[in-house]
Amino acid sequence: MKKLYFYIKPLVPMMSAGLAIKFLGTMMDLVIPSVLAVIIDDYTKRGMEGKIYLWGGIMVLCAVVSVISNIVANRFAAISSGRITKSIRHDLFAKISCLSARQTDRLTIPSLISRLTSDTYNINHMLSRMQRFGVRGPILLIGGIIITLTLDPVLTLILVAMLPFIAVIVFFVTKASIPVYTSVQEALDKLTRTVQENFSGVRVVKALSKTEYEKNKFEADNSDLNTKERKAGLIMSVTNPSATVILNVGLTLVVLAGAFRSNSGLTTPGVIIAFQTYFTIMLNAMLGITNVFVMYTKGAASAKRVAEVLDEPDDIAYTAGVTEDSPYHVEFRNVTFSYNKTEPNLKNISFALRRGQTLGIIGATGSGKTTIINLLNRFYDPDEGEILIDGRNIRSIPNGEFRAKFGNAFQSDFMVAAGIGENISYYRDIPAEKLALAADHASASEFINAYSDGMKHMVSPRGGNLSGGQKQRLLISRALAGEPEILALDDASSALDYKTDSNLRRALHENYADTTKLIVTQRISSIRHADIILVLDDGEVIGQGCHNELVKGCETYRIIAQTQMGENGV
Questions:
Q1: Sign of CA dihedral 363, 369, 370, 373
Q2: How far apart are CA 172 and CA 178, in angstroms?
């Protein structure tokens, strides 16, 4: 909640103005029953119709002021809570965008989506309700007690005696419900993950006839969420009925005591009627306060979840470093890394590339090929060793400068629902002629030009109207369009036919001679002309050299080459 105050502070003047207007409207509500008591006790005699009309007009005026004040104050509450939530969402999205891959893995994408949507909605609802009822309720309750004390202290004490019982119930219910609402949001995270996975893999689900399985899986997660929501609802449902029963007992005692006092001449019928009206006001105020506690409970649980993300430390820190006089453009020095910090995924990886050289990386699935690309892009930091670019440790390169060096194309990268040109540029300020040139080098211009609208041809979400090879060529075009110093192709040509793959390699050799290239692949043909080839197995380098050297000296590489290229593997 301390984090939330940071966002509330700039809007304190608006919120204060709204609360002042709300206070005015609430006071008008409190005045009306007193005026009614005066009319009943003092002006119901014959010949005093003028006084009745006068005081009745005052009641109408108070009601009008109350309505207008509450409408204005509620608008202020909606505007201020909306602006606060907008700022929170903005900063939360910015923070999520800057989280390291390790932090994203730990928090999970579905949970981050839930925090950005449902949790911020709960915060918005809490802020709005607290401004609308959190002020009005206490004022009506306390003001009602003060006014009824002036009318009849004995009857007031009966009602006041009921309030501690309600306060105890609200306290224990609120204390018990916060962890329950936290578990509700966690169950919502799980449901969001299930839906996201199902939508992403809808083709696989249908192809394997697993629709019923997915329905059952969704139903299980949905039932779990429903159970936890029902538990939270049952806990919170105790408050309103309990408060109503307690206050109704108090009202019964007030009416009973008022009857005896009226017969004894200690009070008047107008006071008793005013008491009943004030009781209704106080009852609604108490119910409003309990509802605010309900919203506060949900909002506090959500605010805690949002703050957990906003308070995440900068996992990818940038530190000053010394630039070495190195002849190499990209260098790994004894790099070791583990995703889960138990078993290393890479062990003592070392290689060095001069500017313009090509590194090929090949190995079995799970051997650590993509991890090398992730570390080079600094999606993760190595646990041991160093990664250098032009003699500078990548930890010491500012983010903007560092990212500008890279062009990346991954096997299953995303496409946006926009034109082909926009997918290649991805909203970077790249001239049209460079986009066309990048597409030509990636062998994508052939199918792009076949469309009547060319670069403006719309791509459906996730590239659903493109083949696998077309999507990969667009992704490679995107990587080339920025004219990167370092080009990383992570199995980015797996869907290309051999002719297109050959044309791509020729284009890279002829047009990007100064670009250092790292190519992750399962095809020997894609890397046989690379300057250096790494053969990985279980996170370790078991072979390093050019194609001919590895055919002779690395059994694993020789088997792959013979399988793909014939008996000699050359």
A1: negative
A2: 11
How buried is residue 200: exposed, middle or buried, by Cβ count under 10 Å (0-12/13-18/19+)? exposed
> Cα–Cα distance between 20 and 26 in angstroms, integer?
10
358-363 and 406-410 as β-strands: parallel, antiparallel, unpaired?
unpaired
Helices (H), 237-312: 239-263, 269-310
pLDDT at position 63 over 90: no
**pLDDT-based confidence at residue 418 (cuts at 50, 70, 90):** confident
Confirm if 247 and 165 have CB atoms less than 8 A apart. Answer: no
Ranges of each domain in the chain:
2-310, 330-565
SS (H, E, C) 162-230: CHHHHHHHHHHHHHHHHHHHHHHHHHHHHHHHHHHHHHHCHHHHHHCCCHHHHHHHHHHHHHHHHHHHH
- Strand order from edge to edge, sheet including 486-490: 406-410, 486-490, 516-520, 358-363, 532-537, 540-545
pLDDT range class, residue 373, cuts 50, 70, 90: very high
DSSP 402-430: HHHTEEEEETT----SSBHHHHHHTT---
Q: Which residues are within 8 A (CB) of 436 and not within 5 positions of it... i.e. 6 or more apart?
A: 445, 455
Report pLDDT digits (tens) over 292-315. 777 787 788 888 889 989 988 887
* Separation of alpha carbons 357 and 486, rounded Å: 10
Give residue 492's pLDDT: 82
- Residue 80 corresponds to which tokens in the numbers above? 């201020």
Specify whether the CB–CB gap between 361 and 519 falls below 8 A: yes
Entry pTM: 0.73
- Burial grade of 146 (CB within 10 A; 0-12, 13-18, 19 or more): exposed
Reduced to 3 states (helix: H, G, I; strand: E, B; else coil), residue 546 is coil
Those residues whose C-beta lies under 8 Å from the C-beta of residue 128, and which sit 6 or more positions away, are 77, 78, 81
Question: Residue 277: its pLDDT value, please?
Answer: 77
Joined tokens for residue 549:
């050297």
Calculated CA dihedral for residues 375, 378, 379, 380, nearest 10 degrees = 60
pLDDT at 570 over 60: no
User: Which residues, including other chains, have CB under 8 Å from residue 7's CB and lie 6 or more apart?
Assistant: 84, 87, 88
Query: pLDDT per residue over 419-434, tens digit each?
Result: 898 888 888 888 989 9
Both structure tokens of 100: 């390291």
What are the DSSP calls for 68-111, one per residue?
A: HHHHHHHHHHHHHHHHHHHHHHHHHHHHHHH--HHHHHHH-HHH
The domain defined by 2-310 folds into ABC transporter transmembrane region fold (1.20.1560)
Q: Are 276 and 103 in contact (CB under 8 A)?
A: no
In CATH, what is the architecture of 330-565?
3-Layer(aba) Sandwich (3.40)
Lookup: tokens for 405: 């060096």
